[in-house]
Known about the structure:
Elements: E1 8-16, E2 19-21, H1 22-25, E3 34-36, E4 39-47, E5 50-54, E6 69-70, H2 74-80, E7 90-92, E8 111-115, H3 116-122, H4 130-133, H5 138-149, E9 153-156, E10 160-164, E11 167-171, E12 180-186, E13 189-195, H6 201-206, H7 216-230, E14 236-238, H8 243-247, E15 259-261
Amino acid sequence: MTELPIHEVYAIRYATQPERPEGATFLGGDPSKMIRGLDFFTYVIKGPNGIFVVDTGFNADLSGDGGRNFLEEPSEIINKFGIDPKTVNKVLLTHAHFDHVGNLDHYPQAEFSIHVDEMNSITGPDITYAPFRIAYHERDTQKLINLLYEERLSFYTETVNQVAPGIEFHLVGGHSRGQMILRVHTKRGWILLASDAVHLYEEVETERPFAIFHDLQKMIEGYRISVQLAGGIDRLISGHDPLVTDWYPAVSNELKGKVLDLNLKPEMN
Length: 269
């Protein structure tokens, strides 16, 4: 049996939201109750097949909406981490919500990929429904179309898609029609970058639905699939939970709170 390659995976934390209404977070939540907010991440994967950037964050001009605090451009943090964004060749997009596909022009040499179901959703009848438009931005969709005409955007079409040996993209849908999760083989085994399939660990622990979704049943099924593929909460990296920042160490003092080492077992106590 061929051994799977080992990859290094890092979370790039570029924005925070100290608190938000429970009603804006969970389906049926109390709109008058404030709870801990979200952290915003992109990711870097380093391995024998090169460097992959996963998602590109939201544009800085959207940072004040909803009480979000923009720390630094994701590409600038990546640059300080020793990776020139202008040389990145591959960007993997988990879905097309505004906080995952901004700043596409920060990677001028990259080829981008997304699931075909997501592209069909953001350019088709789904967007005639106002509730489905809420987490997308017209500017981002136009940039994705531009990349398509530049022949720099390709599509995954299967439920399970191999990006490279030891890197798998799984379509789960739910939160968005084309929501994908990314399974990566590391020195501690497989870990799962859940993206917005799991915003917060409470979603999978109690199957409490997030407030924004395309298909409620698929979103809850996605919680179960994510835990199964990860093999446990300690190997599941939620897409927005500040517990990720609490649990995983920074790669250096200079990048404290901005670049988190996901290759180590989290300190969850």
